[in-house]
Design goal:
Number of strands: 12
Structural class: alpha/beta
Helix content: 25-40%
Number of helices: 6
Strand content: 25-35%
Distance between the termini: 97 Å
Length: 245
């Protein structure tokens, strides 16, 4: 019985210590003013969509700039909420540093495809299938052109783009996807001058597997520029059109 009481007392003391430590760690020092912002892009690739200058300007416009404000008057949650509405930010985490600054960790919305529709609509699709406005800063992803409305882009093209980026072979090969008026797909590879015709988007994974076999076993033997067009539209056959001499 005494052993249980002793254990309980120890647990209570440890819990009280942790509670006090957390409170002191998160306390905002009275009288100290914010010395600025530390911005960290947490993704593996910084696309330069979000800069410290952009963050400062956004918070200033909303009247939330922490610079020179008392640390105990800064509302961290308000900063995170304001930043989360920036189109290129997927998530923002804010906290105070021991040096008296506001640290902001940014997780970006990552571009998947660049869409340039024949109707003049141009934007990126991100990894969640959402529309991401063009920032003026180029991103090296595959470009989708042709007869593309946003519903088609966020459904069929999004799924195709995810597949291409997760397949090392085709991610390295495909630089353009063209959508015909019948919503059929023509692909422009980086190697060779041929057009790869997939037809409709159905069963595209099987079509790519068939194409990869043809690439590795046939084109490497006969040459990359022998054909003008390679079609895998139909099951169990590959139709090649030779270039006119």
């Amino acid at each position: 019985m005494m052993k249980r009481i002793l254990i309980l007392c120890v647990l209570l003391v440890v819990s009280a210590y942790l509670a006090v430590a957390v409170t002191l760690f998160n306390a905002k020092p009275a009288g100290q003013v914010c010395r600025g912002i530390e911005l960290t892009i947490k993704d593996s690739i910084d696309y330069d969509f979000i800069t410290l200058k952009d963050v400062n300007a956004l918070l200033k416009r909303k009247g939330l700039s922490p610079a020179d404000k008392p640390l105990d008057k800064i509302n961290i949650r308000q900063l995170e909420e304001a930043l989360s509405h920036q189109p290129f930010i997927a998530e923002a985490e804010c906290y105070l540093t021991s040096s008296g600054k506001v640290a902001i960790d940014i997780y970006q919305r990552i571009p998947l495809l660049r869409v340039m529709s024949n109707n003049g609509d141009t934007y990126y699709l991100d990894h969640a299938g959402q529309i991401l406005p063009v920032s003026g800063k180029p991103v090296h992803v595959a470009v989708a052109t042709g007869f593309i409305d946003r519903k088609f882009a966020q459904d069929q093209l999004y799924q195709l783009g995810k597949y291409l980026q997760t397949d090392a072979f085709w991610n390295a090969q495909i630089e353009q996807i063209n959508v015909t008026p019948r919503q059929e797909l023509e692909l422009v590879p980086r190697v060779g001058n041929q057009i790869l015709f997939l037809g409709k988007t159905e069963d595209y994974q099987e079509k790519f597997r068939k194409l990869q076999t043809f690439y590795t076993e046939a084109l490497s033997q006969v040459g990359w520029n022998k054909y003008e067009r390679i079609s895998v539209e139909f099951n169990n056959q590959i139709i090649c059109t030779k270039k006119e001499k």
